[in-house]
Amino acid sequence: MRQSPSQFSRWAPFGGAVRQIICTLGRASRLLLSAWVLIYCNHGFLFAEDVHTESRTPFLHNIPLHDAQGRIISPPALLGDDGKPQEAKANPYSTALTCGKCHDYDAISQGWHFNADSGTAKPGRPGEPWILTDPATHTQIPLSYRGWAGTFKPSEVGLSDYQFVTNFARHFPGGGPGEPGKIRGRMAVTGALEIDCLICHQTAGRYDHEARFNALKAENFRWTPTIAAGLGSFASSRSAGSIADSVRPDRPAPATLPAIKYNRDRFDTENNVTFQVSRRSPVNNCYYCHTSQAELGDARWHSDLDVHIKAGLLCVDCHRNGLDHAIVRGYEGEEKDRTITDTAIDLRKQLIRRDNTTISEDDAKKLAKQQLQSEVGKIETLTCRGCHTDGRLGSPRLVHKGLPPIHFEKLTCTACHSGPLPTSEEQVVHTSMAHKLGLPAPERGKNTAPVVIEPVFLRGADGKIGPYKMVWPSFWARLNGNKLTPMLPAEAATNFTLPQIASEDVARDPYNTKPLTDSQIQKALASFSGGLSNGDPVFIAAGKIYRVDKGALNSWEFAAAKPYAWALAHDVRPAAQALGARGCADCHAKDSPMYFATVAARGPVEANAGLRKEMWELRGDDKSVASFFAFTFHFRLLLKCIVFACAFVILGVLLHFGLRGLGAISARAGLAGKDKT
Amino acid sequence: MSRALRKFSCGVLCVSGLFLAFTGIGTFLFGKPPMTHWVLMAHVAVAPLFALGLVAVALTWSDRCQCGGQSSLSALAKALFWVILLAGLVVILSGVLPMTPLFDTTGEHLLYLTHRYSAIVLIGAILLHLPLLALSKDGLNRRDRR
């Protein structure tokens, strides 16, 4: 727990004036006063972290800010003692010690958005990777701390946690690699990148992502949440990054670091700041990191968005979480991938012991674990199937008239309902994490790296076919035997002479999308100046490896060049626009995209240079089966007619003889009656 | 009806029925359910033949198998015949109805189960009926007395 119990909060029932007095007193005085309050109130002493509203009404967060040392931030008065105007300079606020006063920051920091590098969280179903992209060197490397097959861990490509943060914190909410256990090196100056709660939870629309991005670029990590929240600006012409540059690694960080120049109008008379926040994050906050846009550029207006959003749901209605922020990802079988953390068990144990004072510590822990495991099972009801089976949140129940049940065993729900309708060729999609959406930049096009395509129908770990997004890695590397070591863009730029973009093309093609020709790749590989002791220089792109052997460029399909794919779930289309709504031929036809669409590997090479495969091939299916099965659908109507006609005749025979039998029984019964009379 | 036609209809029904049982029930017993790929296609392709065979059997054998009819077939054989006919009707209808937009997921699943269990009853009845038929005076190898 990072809370400082020596700090009073305004929610303690004593009023702001008392708090102001307390802040000016020393520790001893505060202890005395605390004891007095304890006795005076006669019903216990309440810290901020001990009180909760527990209402569905969002609590008005009119709260004091705390800096990284836990001190309340009080900007100096407008006029000094000498009557001269004073700037409102003070330390940046710390989310861990401001929000963390009431919301257990340690528990939150184990949530899905922050725990990738913890090593304790199960990786779960492969998700969207971070893609290290550099147009100048044609580099695009899928990265993930979670070890998803097909991605590299940052350390595997020589990327430190600090470099990871500088590259990706633009769409990373902080915590994790941004907040290592021990602060050292440059971070002693720049500060840790704490979890910025407001990225997700602010509702005022005042959060400035661009300002955050600029602060991160300058490595002003400690100051970033304050700047992004619009509370103030960085009060120095010299960035933390440049200060860190000037600090020798063996020397301690400077004691005095730049302050924040606060906006006075954000503070009330008691030095509280109002944050408009909600537990239920608005959709647009999620979209900052999770936009997925298949209609590019001006075509965005064609997008219908997700049917759930249109129906008025929020992302967090399904993707829920408790205090531990272990957000529900929403795929089937997720419950097996969930980790119940010790912190969660501890929190639950406290609640159990509160309600049952006689239970022992061990029993409470066991019970807490049982309860949490049972609750994990409930997340199944938040999957597509779970929600639409139970009619949860008013969801229409599953109908699927005329769809044989085998489809539910072979396909995910998303196969028919999510993403753009498949066409004969793959579609390019831009995502926030890959293409820095949400940040101003020259307009991104369909060749802007990294080129991500969708929907590609692949088979998941559960054997079901579903739609995926796909990206092909592209990088310069060393190949030593079978070991491939990717080079970071800076290293590649140093070791290879790469074709430069013509200055007149920069404005037209700011993302350097012109593909490399074979001769350019050969020249670049031949120019390698990094020494051959650690392996031969190679280039990975569009599913192939390129290497110069005896003066000739060779390329072949290579395992490490395989695409990385991750399941897509949104945007969900309404039932009327699902695959199959127009009939079986949506999928079972000789030209059905689900089987026969061509997936051309995309990368910084010429269009026909990469691998091309059809969907059935990517899945490892049998083409003859798919083709013949599609062919049989020509006879489907005939089959139905024959079988119904046969059924009609058989029914006629059964009725005929059945009625005759009844007649005979009736006649015999009549005769028997006559005999008796 | 000629003996040859009766024999032929019975043969078609038995061969197609056993093939369907092999692909259908066999997949559950010896393979990996559910049926897919070539096995499924073969199952569906033979299904109309089975339906036609069932119709032929219904038309050629029902008169002999009616209750109280002039036939040497035992009561059990006759009863099994009607069971075959009834189960066969259920099997073919529960096989083809899921291809129509009439039933929702629950209905489709119910039809799937109905198909499965009625097929088991049908095959059981056929396997019981065949020896009884072979042993009877009026069976497959006897001359038509009419």
How many helices of chain A does DSSP assign? 26
Total beta strands of chain B: 0
What is the radius of gyration of chain A?
32 Å
Rg of chain B over CA atoms, rounded to whole Å, is: 16 Å
Q: Most extensive interface, residues per chain?
A: A-B, 35 and 40 residues
Number of helical stretches of at least 4 residues of chain B: 4
Counting copies of identical and different chains, the oligomeric state is heterodimer
Average the pLDDT over all residues of chain A and give the rounded result: 86
User: Count the strands of chain A?
Assistant: 19
What about the largest sheet of chain A?
5 strands, antiparallel
Strand order of the largest sheet of chain A: 8-9-10-11-17
Helix fraction of chain B? Answer: over 70%
Helix content of chain A: 25-40%
Secondary-structure element sequence of chain B? HHHH
**SS-derived structural category of chain B:** mainly alpha
Q: Structural class given helices, strands, pairing of chain A?
A: alpha+beta
Shape of chain B: elongated
Which sheet architecture does the biggest sheet of chain B show?
none
Q: Which residues of chain A sit in consecutive blocks of at least 5 with pLDDT less than 50?
A: 1-43
Give a topology summary.
The complex is a heterodimer of chains A (677) and B (146).
Chain A: H1 16-24, H2 27-41, E1 61-64, E2 89-90, H3 95-98, H4 105-108, E3 130-134, E4 139-143, H5 161-168, H6 187-190, H7 197-201, H8 209-217, H9 224-228, E5 232-234, H10 240-246, E6 260-262, E7 272-275, H11 283-290, E8 292-293, H12 307-310, H13 315-318, H14 342-355, H15 361-377, H16 384-390, H17 406-410, H18 413-417, E9 427-431, H19 432-435, E10 452-459, E11 465-471, E12 475-480, E13 483-486, H20 489-495, H21 503-506, H22 518-526, E14 536-541, E15 544-549, E16 552-557, E17 564-567, H23 593-596, E18 598-600, E19 612-614, H24 615-619, H25 623-632, H26 636-676
Antiparallel strand pairs in A: 1-7, 2-6, 3-4, 5-6, 8-9, 9-10, 10-11, 11-17, 12-13, 12-14, 14-15, 15-16, 18-19
Helix pairs in contact in A: 14-15
Chain B: H1 3-30, H2 37-65, H3 75-96, H4 105-135
